[in-house]
Amino acid sequence: xxxxPRPALASGARRTIGERRRSRWIAAAELGLISSTFSxxxxxxxxxxxxxxxxxxxxxxxxxPARDWAISSEPSWSAILTGIAFHQWADFSWAxxxxxVLGRWTADLRPVTILLLALPWAVLSSxxxxxxxxxxxxxxxxxxxxxxxxxxxxxVHGSSAVMYPLFARLRWRHGNAPDSDVRFTNMWTTGALAVxxxxxxxxxxxxxxxxxxxxxxxxDQDQAxxxxxxxxxxxxxxxxxxxxxxxxxxxxxxxxxxxxxxxxGENRIFxxxxxxxxxxxxxxxxxxxxxxxxxxxxxxxMRQVKTAPPDQFDKLFVETMSRHHRGAAKMADQIWHSRxxxxxxxxxxxxxxxxxxxxxxxxxxxxxxxxxxxxxNMAGDNVNRARGxxxxxxx
Length: 395
Fold this sequence. Notes:
Number of strands: 0
Helix content: over 70%
Pfam family, one: DUF305
Largest sheet: none
InterPro entries: DUF305_CopM-like (IPR005183), Ferritin-like (IPR012347)
Distance between the termini: 91 Å
Protein name: DUF305 domain-containing protein
Strand content: under 5%
Mean pLDDT: 93
Low-confidence stretches: 1-13, 389-395
Radius of gyration: 25 Å
Order of helices and strands: HHHHHHHHHHHHHHHHH
Transmembrane segments: 25-47, 77-102, 114-137, 149-167, 187-206
Structural class: mainly alpha
Shape: globular
Keywords: Membrane, Transmembrane, Transmembrane helix
């Protein structure tokens, strides 16, 4: 007689476990939507503060699943929206993995503990994307890793991870969350909205030429770098536009379009920072200054590339643009190690990585070789060091 109720009790226990598991997955999905949206908004508003053109970055992200279709000389709305959607899908998936797949260990944690685990998780997940999932299996797309330094993805993942403590509220399906969790998540939500409001205000003023003031320790060096890199980029854009029209290799044409987009965006940021920081128009570089810049091409060299026969254009462009990029990497490396404004130095680090990465992309880097190159490029001016070792000098 005592044996009969047991199946019913077991069934009830199974239903309770099943309901908890279902609630956990639903909460994880809700958190994924919140955290990915928060990171998208923060990334969009904060990008220009550290010298990133958000539209170009979204286009680069879109190229992970969409390949060359996404790339153009001016980021299209379709590419930008594709990049945002892909980013949100990735962030959503990481949240689902953290609280769904790993929910046995994470679903019942307190908010502060979740935050302490979520931040290292952001470092790990962004590293997995940058080192493995994007350049290797399953996407086999080296462009993202070679064009964007790892810390950009880490910052994006970090902005998503700071919203993970809200799971402590979402996991209670019927409003039965403990008062301590309610108070913490209310405070956390208020703080997140305040961050968006502050970043939005800074971005609004920044877009109208009122960035936070210059905060470096060597004004002359920063001014010289901005002026020189703006002129250097302008020549690079001119050369890349020729390749976007004339390159025989369709992939090289698309890569040239990306060069146009990224350097145009960077020049817009340089011009806005100059106006905000120094309250004057940026002086043009003299002929002597241009001739002294590493990698800057003469008018004869530019004309040789532009008028090269079709069957010789691709090879000559790759050689010439590689030399031009080595010069930009050298200039950026110098300012990265300077005493200048931190924002300018962070931007220079990204430019150094981007220019070196594009040299590798022009030469067909892919797979594990692309990952190895990207890691080395993150650490230093690899292209000029290697060239100096070979021939005793750098461009």
